[in-house]
Write a structure and sequence with these properties.
The structure holds 3 protein chains of 3 kinds. Chain A is an all-alpha fold. Chain A is 71% helix and 1% strand. In chain A, a hairpin with a 4-residue loop joins strand 1 and strand 2. Chain B is built from 5 helices and 2 strands. Chain B has a domain of 74 residues: Methane Monooxygenase Hydroxylase, Chain G, domain 1 (Up-down Bundle), CATH 1.20.58.1610. Chain C has one domain: Orthogonal Bundle (Helix Hairpins), CATH 1.10.287.3510. The longest helix of chain C has 30 residues. Chain C starts with a helix and ends in a 14-residue tail after the last helix. In chain C, 41% of the residues are buried. Classes of the chains: A mainly alpha, B mainly alpha, C mainly alpha. The interface between A and C is large, with 45 and 48 residues.
Chain lengths: 678, 134, 100
């Protein structure tokens, strides 16, 4: 990439400046967020401290612009195969665009109540919105990362901004303590990350993820260094080597890359697992989530985790797809699989014991990381495995790729729905309590439903979504993950699913405890009565999150479709024809189904007008992919609309306020059908 | 091989000479007054002898932190400077380093964007009165 | 030409010293310094490998690591200062407000 000079001067169609500009336009959402964060910083510096309310409006405007830019890209077929920008430093593909939109929505949600929260608890600071935008920018770098450098910069941009936000509540010792704990652990993990990247670079000589993925296979294949070393090692061991010294040297030289590579992978994976707080690296999570100001906690639980998983998807699933690297005995998948089981169990068991709502939700977010890792491991298994049986070779590859894509799509769907529901629950926690008195202790939530019925209902919906209650989004997230994991015959995945289901039951216990406390305990009186946050930001976020959770569950089709398009061809290099083929196939399959049941998606959106639309989920059933090629422009308009509810959170909050009660009525809770079989 | 280090040697000699000459001129021309305070070893204004665990004003931290960040960012100027010719030329350079293609402002604009971001940081720091010592 | 083994040994030694420092020492400032050691160990490794492969990516990466480390140190020191305001200690074992 750093190849200026004579050899780089092959004829280019665009000049450097024009190329850079074109790249920036491809990255419009990200660039808008970055520029806006600087503007926000200047606006804060050059305005009176008394005018902080307008900063929220400025931030929401910027996020709105970015969301519009991202939504315009979402249906654009030119990004289907993935476009490399800045010489492969970043990649724009459907997955990154979908995740961008989610991050923008989460950030907008946080901005909605972060200012109110800080004002009420007397630690108002003008940098808050700018920091949120910078952190969102970091997450977006992770979504787009095409090289290890981008991965590192994304993680650091995100983390450094979040460290500051965690410690921003200067009038509370808990906040700075949380910041310090998070910071020390975070800095340690970035040390591991950098060393891991250095080792990977030493083993392969490249920072580019796609290039890296190609150089991994020869390291381990029979023809490459590993296999060659094996011959020498065996001959040395048997004492049959003709020239023992030469054989030893050859073996060392051949093994050196592998000896660098495997610790490198371990270090990078450890650092990424730290960021998403998977189990051996989760120690900081409850403390940091508890001590941080609640809006920051919401952002950490939703957006930072999303960034971490985007990185895990890119690194583990997208890059390390060599059978020897995924499977036993050198494979990461066994390790990550076992960690996933431990993660969900530890998270849930610890959450049950909690009396503090924030810590409870922190541990529950640890548990959700465990569920998400099931999808990551499943995707990795599928991408390297082939189906057995009588299928032809081509069909086996199709089967494994198709299921791998489906696993990635499930992870994406889960990430989006988990992010929305988490946002809602933490917004509710922020809402409950004011004037330097937070009501994080569970007993203070007694009878909340009597005083704030609407908020309590929305909170209940969000909690049910996290729990995995059928008509709500979280259920389909879990269902998708577990189902695709069961499709593989692998014993480890089976165990992961078994533990996942058991853990979901355990999880229900503590989510229900909050709900029961809210509804069936007598409210606190007099002195103990909890005040609530002024301003309508937090309320809007809770209600919108609940509405979206229901919408994404009952009308799961558009979101699932977007996730399937985003996940298609994950294993292939950006810009490769195979990848384009896969994405087009998925788009065509969706469009073909759309022909059968026209306007189905629109019906879901225009809820107040249409009422029940029975033709929706019955017709399409299992249309196999790859048939009935359609005109590509047919689905272009309907894609952004599928995403519209995400955007609305930031843009037109007042419009959605009344949605929650009206939502469940219009559609029957039919199961969205994902065709998993090729 | 050895002569390729000649510029470095010349540079070192020049630096030593420049510093030495300045010291020498100051010794010859400068006024000489001594007092008890002036003879103390200079240590940024703090007491040279005493407990090292005195409290420093937090302002020292603030300035140190700001210096650290801005100082490090300047390190990015070095790779840019060493590639400036290539960045300012659409096409190849000839052996003498002159541009044979079309010259472009790309390199310059790029660095101005970078410096612009730094300037925004500086403006922010200045407006937040982090640079005021009072 | 210098063998690439010696800088690598230096790199790993720095990294391990830093890692042990973070895990063993309880003073925040020393932990911060240890993190810097880890990062700089990784930097040495990056530059060594950059030389090994004759590729500049490693060096560029180490520039970014330096810049990020500076930003991280700035934020870390600011957090330490804000902790000092409430309690005059840099010992992480005394930070026990947040616990189960």
């Amino acid at each position: 990439m750093i190849a200026f000079g004579p050899e780089a001067s092959q004829p280019e169609t665009l000049g450097r400046g024009a190329q850079a500009l074109a790249d920036m336009i491809h990255l419009a959402p990200m660039m808008l967020v970055a520029v806006w964060s600087l503007l926000q910083l200047l606006a804060d510096a050059f305005s009176d401290p008394g005018t902080r309310k307008f900063e929220r409006r400025v931030a929401l405007t910027g996020l709105g612009f970015a969301a519009v830019a991202a939504a315009l890209q979402l249906g654009d077929v030119q990004y289907d195969a993935g476009v490399e920008v800045f010489s492969g430093f970043l990649i724009v593909d459907p997955m990154s665009i979908l995740l961008d939109l989610t991050v923008l929505a989460i950030t907008a949600g946080t901005v909605m109540f972060a200012g109110d929260f800080a004002r009420s608890h007397r630690f108002e600071y003008g940098e808050q919105e700018a920091l949120l935008l910078i952190a969102a920018f970091g997450v977006m770098i992770l979504n787009h990362a095409g090289t290890l450098l981008a991965l590192f910069l994304g993680i650091e941009t995100m983390s450094i901004a979040v460290y500051v936000m965690v410690g921003a509540r200067w009038n509370s010792g808990r906040s700075s303590e949380a910041a310090l704990k998070y910071f020390i652990m975070g800095a340690f993990s970035s040390g591991l990350l950098v060393m891991g990247i250095a080792l990977l670079y030493g083993a392969t000589g490249t920072m580019d993820l796609a290039e890296l993925s190609q150089r991994v296979s020869p390291l381990f294949s029979g023809k490459g260094s590993w296999g060659a070393a094996m011959t020498d090692i065996v001959s040395l061991h048997l004492g049959q080597a003709a020239h023992p010294d030469a054989a030893r040297d050859r073996a060392i030289v051949a093994l050196a890359p592998v000896a660098l590579f495997i610790p490198g992978v371990l270090l990078v994976v450890a650092a990424l697992l730290f960021k998403v707080s998977a189990v051996p690296f989760h120690m900081w999570t409850p403390d940091a989530y508890d001590g941080a100001p609640t809006p920051t906690t919401a952002f950490m639980a939703a957006a930072v985790k999303l960034g971490g998983f985007a990185a895990l998807l890119k690194f583990l699933v997208g890059t390390l797809q060599t059978a020897r690297l995924v499977h036993h005995p050198y494979g990461w998948a066994t390790v990550v699989g076992i960690l996933a089981i431990v993660t969900m169990t530890v998270g849930n068991v610890a959450a049950i014991r909690q009396k503090n709502v924030k810590r409870l939700l922190a541990y529950s977010s640890v548990a959700h990381v465990g569920y998400l890792l099931v999808g990551i491991v499943a995707a990795a298994f599928f991408y390297v495995d082939r189906a057995g049986g009588q299928l032809t070779e081509v069909d086996q590859v199709l089967w494994s790729r198709g299921n791998g894509d489906l696993a990635v799509a499930s992870v994406l769907y889960y990430l989006v729905t988990y992010g929305v529901a988490t946002m809602g629950t933490f917004a509710c926690v922020a809402f409950y309590g004011a004037h330097k008195k937070e009501a994080t202790s569970l007993h203070q939530w007694a009878g909340m439903a009597q005083r704030h019925p609407g908020i309590a209902l929305s909170m209940t919906i969000c909690l049910l979504s996290l729990m995995g209650m059928p008509p709500i989004a979280g259920f389909f997230g879990k269902l998708g993950l577990f189902r695709v994991a069961m499709t593989s015959g692998d014993a480890l995945l089976r165990w992961m699913v078994i533990f996942g289901v058991l853990n979901s039951v355990v999880g229900a216990a503590y989510y229900l405890r909050i709900i029961v406390t809210m509804y069936f305990r007598p409210p606190l009186q007099g002195e103990d009565e909890v005040e609530v946050l002024e301003g309508h930001g937090a309320r809007v976020v809770v209600v919108v999150a609940a509405a979206l959770s229901v919408l994404a569950g009952v009308g799961a089709r558009p979101l699932l479709d977007a996730c399937r398009v985003a996940a298609a061809g994950t294993g292939y290099r950006a810009g490769s024809p195979t990848r384009l083929e896969r994405v087009t196939a998925v788009r065509d399959a969706i469009a073909a189904r759309g022909e059968d049941a026209p306007e189905a998606e629109e019906a879901a959106e225009a809820e107040e007008a249409t009422g029940a639309e029975p033709a929706d989920d019955a017709a399409p059933a299992d249309v196999p992919e790859g048939e009935a090629p359609e005109k590509p422009e047919g689905e272009a308009p309907e894609k952004p609309e599928g995403e519209a509810p995400e955007k609305l959170e930031g843009e037109a909050p007042e419009k959605l306020e009344g949605d929650a009660p009206a939502e469940p009525a219009p559609q029957k809770p039919a199961k969205p059908s994902e065709p998993p079989r090729p | 091989m050895a002569e390729s280090y000649l510029p470095a040697l010349l540079f070192v000699l020049f630096a030593l000479g420049f510093a030495g000459a300045n010291l020498g001129i100051a010794m010859v021309l400068g006024p000489k007054r001594t007092s008890a305070i002036k003879d103390e070893p200079f240590e940024c204004g703090s007491e040279p002898i005493g407990s090292p665990r005195v409290k420093f004003s937090v302002k020292f931290y603030q300035v140190a932190i700001l210096f650290l960040v801005f100082d490090i960012e300047v390190a990015f100027l070095y790779p840019w400077a060493s590639l400036f010719r290539e960045l300012s030329c659409e096409g190849a350079l000839n052996v003498a380093g002159a541009c044979v293609g079309t010259p472009t402002l790309f390199g310059l604009v790029e660095m101005f964007i970078f410096l612009g971001v730094l300037t925004i940081g500086l403006a922010y720091v200045w407006r937040k009165r982090a640079l005021d010592w009072a | 030409m210098v063998s690439l083994i010696s800088p690598l040994i230096l790199a790993f030694a720095l990294f391990v010293i830093g890692m042990v420092g973070v895990l063993v020492r309880r003073n925040v400032l020393i932990m911060l310094m240890s993190v810097e050691l880890m990062l700089n160990g990784a930097n040495v490794a990056l530059i060594t490998f950059s030389r090994l492969w004759g590729d500049l990516d490693g060096q560029v990466f180490s520039m970014f690591v330096i810049a990020v480390a500076a930003a991280e140190a700035a934020v870390g020191l600011a957090i330490v200062v804000s902790i000092f305001r409430t309690r005059a200690s840099a010992d992480v074992d005394q930070l026990t407000t947040l616990r189960d």
